[in-house]
Structure formats: structure tokens, C-alpha cells
Amino acid sequence: MKRASPPNFDQSAFKQALSQFATGVTVITTRAASGQLIGITASSFNSVSLTPPLVLWSLATRSASMPVFRANSHYVINVLASTQLDLCKRFATVKGDRFEGVSHAAGDTGMPVLDGALAWFECHNRSRYDEGDHVIFVGEVERCGVHENAADMQPLVFQGGQFHGLKPL
Hints:
Elements: H1 11-18, E1 23-24, E2 26-31, E3 37-42, E4 46-49, E5 54-60, H2 66-71, E6 74-79, H3 85-93, E7 104-106, E8 112-114, E9 119-131, E10 134-146, E11 157-159, E12 162-164
Antiparallel strand pairs: 1-11, 2-3, 2-6, 4-5, 5-10, 6-9, 7-8, 9-10, 11-12
């Protein structure tokens, strides 16, 4: 098999091109063996398969949360609504207890489901793939749900370095 050619661009050009793709924003949550709740903001969420129901997301290998996510059997992908920008920023930047004052409930696996999430997916940590400076996690969805007012809500979207809501065309 022929190998890829070396890139003809620098990292900033790559980041700028990637930023043009609009993505939804999620908070991935789990519980460490110690019982501590762990959560991180991620925009790398994507569907993989309907049968079986599979989704994927990725996490930087240098992330402090990596050992917990790599070892745990389950996690929850919480799809954020446009009204949850504060949660997005909290789980992306806050040091210490990111869950302090954050309303959530334990799902069937005991992992935290964030109140007000537009949708959520309780996942079994099916497989992991080390690729470049990230690990790709494939989750087998055991349960999922949609906010009861989802039809009246907008997702939180990230594009061009800014957060947006989304309105139908």
C-alpha cells in the first residue's frame, strides 16, 4: 500500500481548515474508581453504526482524564443545548471539581447524565484506537434519551472558533 505524502501545510493552516466544519458540542462524563465524577468537553462526537448502535469520540492522549476513560467500562455522552454554553466552558476549563453545583443524575450504569442535555447516550467502552496525538473511543450505546422539549431547543454548535445556536434554513 502506498504511504501518505507529507503534508504541504503547517499546523495553523490545518486548524483553520478544520474550524470551518461545524460540530455539535458534548460533555463526556464518567466516574473514577474512587467515585470522583469526571467530565470533559468534546466536539469530536460522531455516529458510527445503527446495528449495533455505535458512536465515537476522541480525547487527547495528554489529557489528565485519559487513564480514567481508558480504564472505565462505561461513560455518558451528553449533547449540549445552546443554553448550556456555561457547562461547555466549565468542563473545558475549570480545574478541580467540575461537577460542583452542576445538576445531574446517575444513569443506569451509575455514570452522570447532565440535567438539561439535549440528548444523552450511555455507552459501554467497546474499543479504543491510538491514532496520532488522540485516542478514538468507540462506545456501544446501551441507553439513550432526548430532552422532553428537544423540539423547542437548539443544539450548541462550534464553528470558526465561535459558539452558535442553530436554526433551520
